[in-house]
Amino acid sequence: MKKLPSVKAICLALIVICSIQLISSIVKSITILSMDSAIFSTGNKLVESIMVKNKRASFEKINYEDESLRQEIEIVSLKASSPVIVYDGMTMEELAAKLELSLNSDLQGYGMSFAKYSIEYGVDPYLALAITLHETGCTWTCSSLVRKCNNVGGMKGSGCGSYASFSSLEDGIEAMIRNLANNYINVGLTTPETIGRKYAASEIWPVKIEYYINQIRNA
Fold it and tell me: Is the whole-model pTM more than 0.70?
């Protein structure tokens, strides 16, 4: 009959096994801590150099990502602070101020309205204002169509005899520029010559518009 191990031998074996597991856990914890803190010594120079290189690469990657993020933030900030050019090398405010130099009588003070709606609807601001000045006579004194009906483009319609009437000059300016965009510019009629064939019966209308455009540009 085979002799069974004694209780003492079994207890001793259990103690040895537990001790080995405990020592293994402690060594593993120390190794992980050493790798995380970059303070380690394996006794193997090759292993140590590889671990140092990997750690350095991780730091360099983080620094590179931080630098890229910083540069992106600076670019966005620079763009936000840079003036936006909307027409002929000018910002919206500069364009409005330039157009204002050609506005008199009832239209005085509406430079920003002409600038804003021209850019919004994709119409040449000089062209829009030139047509307005020709149709209204506001270079000197605005016509009764402007003063009574807020119609700045000689636009046909109702409310003011055979002409359109608007509740304010602001509305009249927007309607005139929107009409230029939808019924002329967007269908390929972009010059005084091509616009004049549809806009006015006079053959010299384009010449007069060109004259006003030059006056506005050189103001």
Answer: no
| Residues 6 or more apart whose Cβ sits within 8 Å of residue 133 | 102, 139, 212, 216
For residues 197 and 72, give the distance between their C-alpha atoms in angstroms, rounded to a whole number. Answer: 51
96 shares a domain with 78: no
| Structure tokens given for 194 | 């091509």
DSSP 90: B
Question: What is the per-residue pLDDT across 189-216, written as a single tens digit (0 to 9) for each?
Answer: 999 999 999 999 899 999 999 999 999 9
CA distance 172 to 174: 6
Same domain, 137 and 76: no
Check whether residue 135 and residue 56 sit in a common domain. Answer: no
Within a domain: 106 = yes
